[in-house]
Amino acid sequence: MTFPDMRTTVTVDPERCCATGGCVFIAPEVFTIENGKAEVLAGVDLTEHAEEIREASDCCPTEAIQLQE
Ligand code: SF4
């Protein structure tokens, strides 16, 4: 998934995610937990939620949320 104006990709590394739920708490419109791992929801306007995504990434205790240019 990308931020159209920033060309940034958001992914969750399932090997790192330990399902604390922090990202879902901070950005419930963007993240969900399926089968014990966080995932980025399909069809989300990532640009609209860019601030929450960055906050969730900063708060992830295992650094599982990756923003890639
Ligand atoms: S905050 Fe990090 S460790 Fe917690 S559920 Fe989200 S991706 Fe997984």
Keyword list:
single chain; 69 residues; alpha+beta; two-stranded antiparallel sheet; 2 helices; 28% strand; globular; binds iron/sulfur cluster
Write the layout of secondary structure elements.
Layout: E1 2-3, E2 8-12, H1 22-26, E3 31-34, E4 37-40, H2 50-59, E5 65-68
The structure holds iron/sulfur cluster (SF4).
Iron/sulfur cluster binds at residues 12, 17-23, 38, 60-62, 64-65.
Q: Overview of this structure, please?
A:
The protein has 69 residues and is an alpha+beta fold. Helices cover 22% and strands 28% of the residues. The chain has 2 helices and 5 strands. The strands form 2 sheets. It has a 3-stranded antiparallel sheet with strand order 1-2-5, with helices on one face. A two-stranded antiparallel ribbon has the order 3-4. β3 (31-34) and β4 form a beta hairpin. The mean pLDDT is 90. The site of iron/sulfur cluster has 14 residues, from α1.
* Main β-sheet, spatial strand arrangement: 1-2-5
How confident overall, as mean pLDDT?
90
Helix content: 10-25%
Poorly predicted parts: none
Radius of gyration: 11 Å
How would you summarize what this structure contains?
The chain has helices at 22-26, 50-59; strands at 2-3, 8-12, 31-34, 37-40, 65-68. It is an alpha+beta fold and 69 residues long. The protein binds iron/sulfur cluster (SF4).
